[in-house]
Structure formats: C-alpha cells, structure tokens
Design a protein that fits this description.
- By secondary structure, this protein is of the alpha+beta class.
- It has a domain of 210 residues.
- The chain contains twelve helices and eight strands.
- A six-stranded antiparallel β-sheet has the order 3-8-4-5-6-7, sandwiched between helices.
- Helix 1 packs antiparallel against helix 2.
- The N terminus is likely disordered.
Length: 311
C-alpha cells in the first residue's frame, strides 16, 4: 500500500474533519483531535514506511533527482512514483544567500513604499500592479526554491529554510511574512486554512466532492498568480504561472522527511485526496496596499476567538 493511501485511510478511520468544515466545533476539542490525528498519520507513516526512511533519509543534505526515488514496495518494473513530477530539490545558492535575499526584499519594499506615498491616485494603481508582480516573483523565484526539502512536522515553526522543521500552515504564513507582509506569523499560520485564507482575501472558491479538474479549470480562468488552498486536514500554495503550469507547493506530511515540495495537482498528494477544498487568490489590491504602507493585516477571522478581531 502506498504511504499516501495509508495516510488518507488513517484520516478516514479516525472520522476526523479539520475545522475547515467544523465552524461550530469546540476549538479545544478540535485542536486535540487534530493533533492526535496528524501524529497518528505520522506514526503510521513512520511504522509502515521504514523503507521510505532509508530512501529519503538525510534529504536535508543529500538531494537525489525525483526520478531516482523508488518505493521498495512498488513492483520492480514500475517507473511511476509520487515524486516523479515533484520539485523538492532546494536551490542551495538561494539558501546560502537567503538573508541577503530577505534584506533585498525589505530594501525594495521601502523604495516601493516611498513611491506609493508620493504618487497620486492614478499612479498608485500602477504601483500596486508593479509591486504585485515583484512580490510574486520574489516568492516563486527566490523564497520557495530555498525552502524546498525543509522537513515537515506538525508543530514545526522554523524560520530558516533547511533548518528545523515546518508545519503546513506555518510554511504559508512564513513565506508571506518573509515577503514583507506585516502580520503575526504563528497566530495566522495556526488557523484552520478556511480562516487563514479569509484573513488575506475575499476572492474565494469552495469545492466539496469536486474533481481536481474543476479546481484546475477555475484557477486557469482566474489567471496567473498566487493562491492559498485549504484541504480536509492540510493546505499550501497554488502557484499558477500560466500556460497550464499550476503547482501545489506545501510542506507535505505524506513525505515528512522531504517536507516542502511543489507537485502537480493531479498526482498522488493531499490536494488530490482531499474531499473538500477552499481556494483563495491572494495579493489582491487590499493586501498589496498593506505591503505598500506597512499596515498590519489583522487576524479578523480567528477560529479560536470567534467573532473577535485580534488587531
């Protein structure tokens, strides 16, 4: 049995649904059940995937091509692997230069902020678009490549790519925080993805028991850009570079020793397995104005404090 299938069956057997679908559930009860379930997945994966550990051990320092990784429980003649089309090899130069990259982002952001403050209404619209393109480029070309291969952990909260471990929601929040947005990284990053997404955008679509092809169709129609996707018990980014090139970039509990990776939506991954999906296109004008002014993005949609906006 494939590791990913086992993880999915573990979720089903536990009859657990993340707070994405439990708006009236007790936060304390949900948090306990969620933690228990995630660790159950990890424990099951660890127990039944001992051969996987041998294959991907030390991937933080040894990076094989995805096509060379084979599960030992697959038939010898199989040329297919969940990782065949995945991107998980980090750009080591970007990791080495990561502090410089973040410094340059901050410096460029200050330049944009000065231009925006001095511009009239007409020119501000143009600056917002230029800033959006800059942020997307920095996230997809510099930040994400440095983070590939950073290990997953349910409680992971590292801020350094390749050092320590990182959870799925914290990975999303860390990426946006390091791109220059002002918000509380861990308070936003530990929200159920339905709430996390609503704090960044109102451009949201929800899918219940819909095929991946429907999500792909809608994301293609909305066009290139950056999206956040929330699933039954997971989440990450959707990166739409146009021309049908759409990837799910996330810290994967399917492959905890690899963690952050970019995958095609239709491959064997949590996005495909999920029965519920909520997808929000981010970096809209309202969010970009916060980047251009330094204003804080408040935690308005807080699952753990319902109907209370945390400034």
């Amino acid at each position: 049995m494939k590791l990913s299938n086992l993880a999915y069956l573990t979720v089903a057997a536990g009859a657990l649904i993340m707070p994405n679908n439990l708006s009236d559930a007790s936060p304390q009860k949900t948090a306990v059940e969620t933690s228990k379930n995630e660790w159950q997945i990890q424990e099951s994966s660890s127990r039944t995937g001992q051969n996987l550990d041998k294959i991907v051990s030390n991937l933080g320092t040894v990076y094989a091509d995805a096509s060379t990784i084979k599960r030992s429980d697959e038939p010898e003649h199989s040329i297919s692997s969940p990782l065949d089309s995945a991107i998980f090899k980090p750009d080591m130069q970007k990791r080495t230069d990561y502090d410089t990259i973040l410094h340059n982002i901050k410096s460029t952001q200050k330049s944009f902020q000065r231009k925006y403050a001095a511009a009239d209404h007409v020119h501000r619209a143009q600056i917002i678009q230029e800033a959006r393109e800059y942020v997307i480029g920095q996230i997809t070309n510099n930040i994400m490549p440095a983070w590939y291969g950073t290990k997953w952990d349910f409680n992971g909260s590292t801020t350094k790519p390749g050092e320590g471990k990182i959870a799925c929601g914290i990975y999303v929040a860390t990426t946006l925080k390091q791109a220059g947005f002002n918000f509380h990284r861990t308070r936003h990053g530990t929200q159920p993805f339905e709430h996390l997404i609503k704090n960044f955008t109102s451009d949201i679509d929800r899918y219940s028991n819909k095929p991946v092809s429907k999500v792909l169709e809608d994301v293609k129609k909305k066009g290139p850009g950056l999206y956040i996707a929330g699933l039954d018990c997971h989440g990450g980014f959707l990166v739409n570079k146009g021309a049908g090139d759409i990837r799910f970039v996330h810290s994967s509990y399917y492959w905890p020793n690899i963690g952050v990776m970019g995958e095609r939506l239709g491959t064997d991954n949590p996005f495909k397995a999920s029965k519920y999906r909520v997808v929000g296109k981010i970096l809209g004008d309202k969010m970009m104005k916060c980047w251009l002014t330094g204003n804080k993005i408040p935690l308005i949609h807080n699952y753990y404090r319902k109907n209370t906006a945390e400034k």
